[in-house]
What we know:
Layout: H1 3-9, H2 17-21, H3 25-44, H4 55-79
Helix pairs in contact: 3-4
Amino acid sequence: MDPQSAHKYAYSFNDSKRYKKLKTIRKLREEQYAHNKRFCLNEYGVDLDNWRTEPYTYLKARLYMELSAIHAIITIIKQVDTMP
Length: 84
């Protein structure tokens, strides 16, 4: 198959249905921070923004939220068929 005819069958990243559901890492982080702050405050009575009283919890929560956002974006990018 020549490269020109192969191009007809391939679709670009922008044409993918999943592209429309793809979030930016900033938007994903904002959603995670808002949800986790609200959840931890309501369920456990822990304020994730309070560095003075709970420094370990503050750092651990930030680290886990950042890593999960990066992992989610990488997973979505792996699932989307892209052409170089």
